[in-house]
């Protein structure tokens, strides 16, 4: 949280986060993503994250990379419903994808 606050002091147009949930407790992940959600309307955010269901719940657009190349891209709703993404990255059955 302190790092986010320090970054905001410079009034940036975009903030980049590299696995912001890494090594955090589930409660701290909620707090960090709550803070990101609160500022996302005021500043552009670029988030690299493996917890796809978490980040797709708050993003407008996403990109899935594998082997250094973009494999899938689109609006968050599209990515949540994309069968290969849902199966591979979200770890849920495609029949249940609409629920998440």
What does this structure look like?
With 100 residues, the chain is of the alpha+beta class. The chain folds into two domains: 1-49, no CATH class; 51-100, no CATH class. It is 41% helix and 23% strand. The protein has a two-stranded parallel ribbon.
List keywords for this structure.
2 domains; 5 helices; 23% strand; 41% helix; alpha+beta; 100 residues; two-stranded antiparallel ribbon; two-stranded parallel ribbon; globular
Radius of gyration over all CA atoms, rounded = 14 Å
State the major sheet: 2 strands, parallel
Overall 3D geometry?
A: globular
Encode the helix/strand succession as letters.
HEHEHEEHH
Please tell me the total number of domains. Answer: 2
Secondary structure tally, helices: 5
**How many runs of DSSP E, i.e. beta strands?**
4
* Mean of pLDDT: 82
**What is the straight-line distance between the termini?**
27 Å
User: What structural category do the secondary elements indicate?
Assistant: alpha+beta
Strand order of the largest sheet: 1-2
| Amount of helix | 40-55%
- Percent of sequence in beta strands: 15-25%
Put the structure in a nutshell:
This protein is α+β, with helices and mostly antiparallel strands. It has helices at residues 2-9, 26-39, 52-56, 76-81, 83-90; strands at residues 14-18, 44-48, 61-66, 69-75.
